[in-house]
Design a protein that fits this description.
Length: 465
């Protein structure tokens, strides 16, 4: 179904001179300004110097995008994975490690799950806990900017939104991870848009909605019906600061974009990469930068919000070295549409509008065969979910989370927690995320959700670890 490119087993520990710095580099060392320009080598600096293994795999989607899927196959103490497999078998455990798939948020990359380093960032904690950790990178970010026949300078490279990430990127990356690891199913952790794409992939279009591929040729190609990812593939999923219904987003840049309208955005910014240029950032960050310059740390922070008291200021240069990681104007326009949504509790496919003679030449009639874009059927999701929200989150607002909970079928939501004072980026950047959040995440992933507070419900599966 998808063609996988030559598996690039980058044995990065050999390729990188930094590796010689040894295993006990303190976390502070990572705040050295990043001079590396190759995106993979730059990302590897977050992993390899600390003695963790890192693999980079190229995965091609059905519509030709070449994504970089990263893997930390085991923790640093587990030097000989083969030996460990033997040990696991002799202890009556499955030979392969359980696979966990981490999916980053909007304008972020796999780096989001790594930037706080070993002992703090989730990817390392999971590797140390015995997981085979896979980190996705969706189309258009710094690590996934290739296509089988389109160049990133070509407008056609950028004609997608999170609909396509859900329809093509997730299935391709997940199936690749499962095939390579030999596991039959995986556990999932998404942050922000990383939750959106999972929900979209598991839900599929409501009703008889069938969704055309934008890259299948003239006026869309093959029609897709039903969920992009079969329910059985994802054992359970953790949603960090989820965004599905997005009516109540209060992020200033997104509100500004929502006020623009889709065609205005395309006219102003083009139909290609969303480049937060200096002028644009000034316009979109707006009063935030003027009133409180220290808040204006990056476009991503302005967009998403973070909690200054929960941020290690010495790590800012590091964060800014990895974000914003890039996306398309159309994707930002889709988010703006979600903010403008007339019905509060619905999650819709991209709205191409009804003017088939528009700037882009695309319209709903042509793309979907209907005047309105289809909705996602959130009640079709059966995967056990844990939802973690933040009371100060401007993108994943408590009100929209309430709508999400109401939209899910009965029994699907196994755990729902709200973190006081948490903003959108605290879920990945927060100093106290390990203490307040990741323990619960690990427990839920292991199937141990029987006694996780008053909102926990349902059966705890058997603990795998
Ligand atoms: C949504 O999914 C549920 C469960 O699969 C199904 O019963 C329902 O008919 C679907 N709703 C729509 C509008 O497609």
């Amino acid at each position: 179904m998808l063609r996988c490119l030559s598996l690039v087993f980058c044995v990065l520990s050999l390729a990188l001179s930094l590796a010689s710095a040894g295993r006990d580099v303190p976390a502070k060392a990572a705040t050295i300004p990043i001079l590396e320009t190759d995106p993979l080598a730059k990302l590897a600096k977050l992993v390899v110097p600390y003695g963790y293994p890192l693999e980079a795999h190229n995965v091609e989607t059905k519509d030709g995008f070449i994504l970089m899927l990263l893997r930390i196959p085991h923790g640093r103490t587990d030097v000989d994975a083969a030996f460990s497999a033997k040990l696991r078998r002799s202890a009556g455990m499955p030979a392969s490690r359980p696979v966990v798939f981490l999916q980053h948020g909007l304008l972020d990359s796999a780096a989001g799950f790594l930037v706080n380093g070993p002992g703090s960032s989730l990817a390392f904690l999971l590797a140390d806990a015995g997981y085979d950790v896979w980190l996705g990178n969706v189309r258009g970010n710094t690590l996934s900017r290739s296509h089988a026949f389109l160049d990133a300078s070509d407008e056609r490279f950028w004609q997608w939104s999170y609909d396509e990430m859900a329809a093509y990127d997730l299935p391709a990356m997940m199936q690749y991870a499962l095939r390579t690891s030999g596991a039959r199913s995986l556990r999932y952790v998404g942050h922000s848009q990383g939750t959106t794409v999972l929900l979209a992939a598991l839900a599929g279009p409501a009703g008889a909605g069938r969704v055309p591929s934008q890259h299948g040729g003239d006026g869309g190609g093959e029609l897709m019906g039903g969920p992009a990812v079969p329910a059985g593939l994802v054992e359970r999923a953790v949603l960090l600061a989820p965004v599905a219904v997005a009516k109540h987003i209060s992020s200033v840049p997104l509100l500004t974009m929502a006020a623009m309208g889709t065609d205005d955005m395309f006219t102003l910014m083009g139909l290609h990469e969303f480049l937060p240029s200096q002028e644009l950032v000034a316009q979109l960050e707006g009063r935030l930068c003027v009133v409180q310059p220290y808040l204006c740390v990056s476009f991503l922070a302005a967009l998403c919000g973070y909690n200054p008291s929960n941020l290690d200021i010495t790590r800012l240069p590091l964060y800014l070295g990895y974000t914003p990681a890039g996306t398309s104007v159309q994707n930002m326009a889709h988010w703006a549409q979600a903010v403008r949504a007339r019905e509060p509790n619905s999650m819709r496919y991209f709205d191409f509008g009804n003017n088939c003679a528009s700037f882009s030449g695309r319209c709903n009639q042509r793309m979907y065969g209907s005047v309105e874009p289809p909705r996602y059927n959130l009640t079709a999701i059966t995967t056990p979910l844990a939802v973690f929200g933040g009371s100060q989150d401007r993108l994943s607002t408590p009100l929209d989370l309430e709508y999400l909970r109401e939209s899910l079928g009965p029994g699907v939501l196994k755990l729902s927690k709200n973190l006081e004072a948490y903003e959108h980026l605290d879920f990945v950047w927060g100093i106290d995320a390990k203490k307040l959040l990741y323990g619960d995440v690990l427990r839920f992933l292991s199937g141990d959700d029987d006694d996780m507070g008053p909102t926990a419900a349902g059966q705890g599966g058997s603990a795998v670890l």
